[in-house]
Amino acid sequence: QVQLVESGGGLVQPGGSLRLSCAASGSINSIYGMGWYRRAPGPQRELVAAITDGGSTTYADSAKGRFTISRDNDKKTLYLQMNNLKPEDTDVYYCNAEYISLVAKSAWGQGTQVTVSS
């Protein structure tokens, strides 16, 4: 099992910055990918940024050039550096981990609220 806990959300003004953190515990060595998702208006969460076990990254178009996903080498902590925040970035952000426990599984954190407002 993998457990995830997000932190770092809060209230910032437009143009400000936040750094979200995700602490992972459990079967860390079984993780092969991690990412950040936002709740979004629709029924499904939307990908913001992802990073593979090999370090390759993927970003939503809205995040490119402003957000950076990274992780510690031991994979215990995932980060999302959010710069030049806009009001439309306001949402609940979730940490995700894809891992193998006999079969592929997903783990999710509880979410952290990001509010961008003047």
Supply database-style keywords.
single chain; 118 residues; mainly beta; 7-stranded mixed sheet; 4-stranded antiparallel sheet; 11 strands
What's the layout of helices and strands?
Elements: E1 2-7, E2 10-12, E3 18-26, E4 31-38, E5 46-52, E6 57-59, E7 67-71, E8 77-82, E9 91-101, E10 103-108, E11 112-116
Parallel strand pairs: 2-11
Antiparallel strand pairs: 1-3, 3-8, 4-5, 4-9, 5-6, 7-8, 9-10, 9-11
What report would you give on this structure?
The model has no long low-confidence stretch (mean pLDDT 96). Strand 4 (31-38) and strand 5 form a beta hairpin. The protein has strands at residues 2-7, 10-12, 18-26, 31-38, 46-52, 57-59, 67-71, 77-82, 91-101, 103-108, 112-116. Strands 2, 4, 5, 6, 9, 10 and 11 form a 7-stranded mixed beta sheet that branches. It has a 4-stranded antiparallel beta sheet with strand order 1-3-8-7, with no helix packed on it. It starts with a strand and ends with a strand. With 118 residues, it is mainly beta.
